[in-house]
Amino acid sequence: MATGPSQVTVPAGSRPLPAAPRGTLHQREVGLGWLLLAPVLIVMLVLVVWPFMTAVWIAFTNKSIGREAEWIGLANFAQVVSSPRFGRALTNSLIFTVVAIALKFVLGMAMAMALNQAFFGRNFLRAYLLIPWVLPGFVAYMIWRWFLDPLQGVANYALTDLGLISFPLEFLSSPATALPSVIAAHVWRSFPFFGVAFLAGLQNIPSEQYEAAAVDGANGWQKFLYITLPGLRHVILVVLMLSTIWTFNAFEPIYLLTGGGPADATMVYTVLAYEMGIVNMRLGEASAVPVLILPVLGMFIVAVSGLMSRDD
Amino acid sequence: MSLRMNRVATAAPTALIVLVLTLFVSLPLYSMVVTAIKTDREIYDDFTYLPKRPTLVQFERVIVGERFMINLRNSLIVATTSTVVAVLMSVLAAFAVVRLRFTGRIWIARIILFKYLLPTSLIYIPLFLVVNSLGLTNTLQSLIFTYLSFSIPFATWLMMGYFRGIPPELEEQAMIDGCSRLGAMVRVLLPVAAPGLVAASIFTFTGAWNEFLLALVFINRPDLQTVPVKLAGMIVGDQYVWGMIMAGAIVASIPVIALYFLAQRFVVAGLAAGAVKG
Question: What is the pLDDT of residue B141?
Fold first, then answer.
């Protein structure tokens, strides 16, 4: 064993378990490898492959809880795709994702740039600003539901006492403010993740680059544009793509803050599927939703995982 | 160039950013804490920004009145069991993928990462079908079992990152000295990778402790509910519940926050090996 096994790269696409080219030691390693992987592979088969195969099958039936499934072809897909509620939910999911990520990016970048400076109390702030992200998600959203309460919420008392509003706002139950409020809560919860990731990236940019730019007379904005952003390129890309997956598929913020209301103003596809499948027990229709979303999301995830496993 | 002017030029925006972010983060947190230590009267009738007489009565209401200990116990059982199982399985799998050479290991690594990125909200309906057909609805086992679907890929992927960063020569030396492959893993690799194990365990435990969607879908018996679903279920109409909900939210957050800050250096190392690699 002169070279470490982890240095050996295996050509992609070759058959699994080839005849052992290197004698019994290699054969033993192959056997041990699959043996150690077996528990994880079995669990993944039972918890991912089997459920999805079931879902695909159920999506072609009129299955509901306590009733046998009957094949109905593409009716569920037709029903879901042509439903205005599903269109509304997908649109809301997209708006939620785009606006929230833009805000998380701005706040996260601001947090990273500020915490990258030396000042009194910086270490405390680094920990403190992380709290929304360290809190359990359901706690964060329940805090916001109460914070925005129309009658006793602190937000309304504070805005009233500052003279900014003259009567309490129904943040979560009026159609105009519901989606922005849900986005605000979600941004609060997850911008610190952007902040820590960017901060870690900033610390990898050599300070010589900034010193050289300063000698050349670059101003702060130019340094940000030509040194900071390119230096963070990879981190930014990975964080944005990860966050796109998580935000687009978010369930807790909407379910816990508005339940999708008022009148579907905040309905997103995950909550709609919950309503169809779990509340109304139309499992066939509800199964059609992930079956429709998976191909698109799957391709996106493959792209992200390519970026993240670059060092393989 | 005057360094001094430069300092002033960055100090002002930094101070402004720090102020705005601190305010943004603090207001909802303040609202939670202050509500949890007020009486219902001060919450609902007689609002003040700071409680006149801070009280622990809301904690008593939620813990005694709402039998919150049962839910805490459920959450603890589910999170601990699924963490132990997931981390054990993940260590073996990560070791196989990183240290053993066999065809297909790169694809396994890809599939594990793919599953880690596949959100639970996309698979909960398929999972519900399976849990239902196994007759596991309304059992803690359903949660322990299905939580493996996200904790195993995550822990495996994290451990893979750790193992890759540890030179294989140490284990090779141990094998020359007579250790078996697995013996070398247990005696040499795992002690060196201990921070990674801690990080993986903390993340896995936290993920299970915080999990909401599957717990909401699989369990509807109050005595089997985990903490998140119990608390969310307490939001009913116009009842005077927010004091005890905020008290319960604080209780539910303490283990997670304590774990995070106790083990922050491991977690940050774990993050570095994980999400922000590059």
Answer: 94
